[in-house]
Amino acid sequence: MTDTRIQYSSEAAVTMVENRFDLVLIASTRVRELKSGHKSTLGSKSGPVTTALQEIEQGLIGREYLKRVRENARAGK
Q1: Four-way CATH pick for 11-75: 2.40.110.10, 3.90.940.10, 3.30.565.10, 3.65.10.10
Q2: Global confidence as pTM
């Protein structure tokens, strides 16, 4: 039996964010949004984890995104 899953390396995403811990926070927050129905900025048909990492790699999502999400959460939005 062959394994059909694709291995995905997030090294480019780490490079964009410059910190693995922030990468985990940003990606997990974005994955939750994608799973709850938010649209991808890429129009990707990949799963939510891969899509979130690709958005980070392309500079579409980053630390500013995480700050905005946190501010919205504090404001009760």
Answers
A1: 3.90.940.10
A2: 0.79
